[in-house]
Write a structure and sequence with these properties.
Chain A: One of its GO terms (molecular function) is electron transfer activity. The complex is a heterodimer of chains A (254) and B (135). With 254 residues, chain A is an alpha+beta fold. Helix content of chain A is 32%, strand content 13%. The radius of gyration of chain B is 23 Å and the shape is flat. The chains are: A alpha+beta (254), B mainly alpha (135). The structure holds iron/sulfur cluster (SF4) and FE2/S2 (inorganic) cluster.
């Protein structure tokens, strides 16, 4: 247990704190945390909360890199706190801040309203191409059809890619990498029939063309989703839709 | 900072964002190499203008290209072009739909390598043609 971590190793965890009811702006607060080699940064924060300072706020749930709650800036990089280990900071200090590019709600907790609103807008569920009755059985899919979207379905909404995207930081209207990965996940699914509708968002002013191919989003993604690929595949598609509407009677996406 | 919201969410400034992470610094450097591409386009444009102005002007331009300053400048341009090309093909696998070859996805490294190889081959062909034409 935390209080008996006894191999003598101590790490200094510097946390960017912000308590809206009393602080004008965030400030760094340091804590000395005894640790063992199997402890994650998240466990370090839990030690602080349990033993040193109960006022510290942060999000977590699964502590196994699947719920997507514990994203934060760790020494300046967007990472999952439960998937980053204290032993990997040999200098003996580690700085922890709320995810970049999002408003800070309190301490390490960010405000994700913007992301959730965007998520709702892209209709992140399958809208069947053809209605089938139960009697007609399931919608079948070949392994090749699955392969086209499978990686994008691994997204855990951790928002690390948003903290890695300067274009989102500069213009929060931009739908951003994670949402585009999910949009693509449904558009590329052979059972889905709502691609044209979702492409309205991808091709809009706030859409894919805000991306300048920095590519850091795909580097930091803990689930190898490659959101940059989703964004860029849809640049081609959105451009195609734009030109198609001049030559097809009903138009492409619009 | 949003003062109209009682929860007072704190919005951090973006000023100097590209200096915050080595990845962004490298991004700015490789984007900046595009300016070298533009600079060389200008050199060629000036050449075209000199050509239109007659033989003396054209020969003057050729002479200027042979000056030590110009040679060093071209060396710098070549290095910047090479780096620009490498970073362009490095990001390329992320920008395209999956490439299926023989039932399997082509690995990103292979796509980058093919791009760089094609550029090298084209550059060599142009070099050989230009060499032949100017002798
Ligand atoms: S694409 Fe990756 S980094 Fe972005 S939200 Fe999904 S899992 Fe997280
Ligand atoms: S606690 Fe669930 S991803 Fe880290």
């Amino acid at each position: 247990m935390a209080e008996t971590t006894g191999n003598g190793k101590v790490v200094r965890i510097e946390v960017l704190r912000y308590r809206p009811e009393q602080d004008e702006e965030p400030f760094l607060q340091g804590y000395d945390v005894p640790f063992t080699d199997d402890m994650s940064v998240l466990q370090g924060l839990q030690y602080i909360k349990d033993w040193l300072d109960g006022t510290l706020s942060f999000r977590w749930s699964c502590r196994m890199a699947i719920c997507g709650s514990c994203g934060m800036m760790i020494d300046g990089e967007p990472r999952l706190a439960c998937k980053t280990f204290l032993r990997d900071f040999p200098a003996g200090t580690v700085r922890v801040e709320a995810l970049a590019h999002f408003p800070i709600e309190r301490d390490l907790v960010i405000r994700m309203d913007d992301f959730l609103a965007k998520l709702e807008r892209i209709k992140p569920y399958i809208i069947p191409k053809e209605a089938r009755t139960l009697a007609q059985g399931e919608y079948l899919q070949t392994p090749a059809e699955l392969d086209v979207y499978e990686q994008f379905s691994s997204c855990i909404n951790c928002l690390l890619c948003y903290a890695a995207c300067p274009q989102y930081g500069l213009n929060p209207e931009f739908v951003g990498p994670g949402i585009m990965a999910l949009l693509h996940r449904y558009n590329a699914d052979s059972r889905d029939g709502a691609a044209a509708e979702r492409m309205e968002i991808a091709g809009s002013e706030a859409g894919v063309f805000n991306c300048t191919a920095v590519g850091y989003c795909s580097e930091v993604c803990p689930k190898h989703v490659d959101p940059a690929n989703a964004v860029n595949q849809n640049k081609t598609r959105a451009a195609g839709d734009y030109f198609l509407r001049f030559i097809t009677p009903k138009g492409g996406a619009r | 900072m949003n003062t109209s919201d009682p929860r007072r969410p704190y919005v951090r400034p973006m000023a100097g964002w590209w200096r915050r992470n080595p990845f962004f610094v490298e991004y700015m450097v490789h984007e900046a190499t595009a300016l070298f591409v533009a600079a060389y386009a200008l050199v060629l444009l000036v050449g075209l203008r000199r050509l239109a102005q007659g033989e003396a002007a054209w020969n003057g331009w050729l002479e200027a290209l042979r000056s030590p300053v110009s040679l060093v400048f071209h060396g710098v341009l070549l290095a910047a072009f090479a780096y620009h090309c490498w970073t362009w093909f490095r990001i390329m696998p992320r920008t395209m739909p999956p490439l299926i070859f023989g039932g399997k996805r082509v690995a990103p490294g292979v796509i980058t390598a093919c791009g760089v190889a094609a550029t090298t081959a084209c550059s060599l062909v142009v070099l050989i043609l230009a060499w032949g034409a100017t002798r």
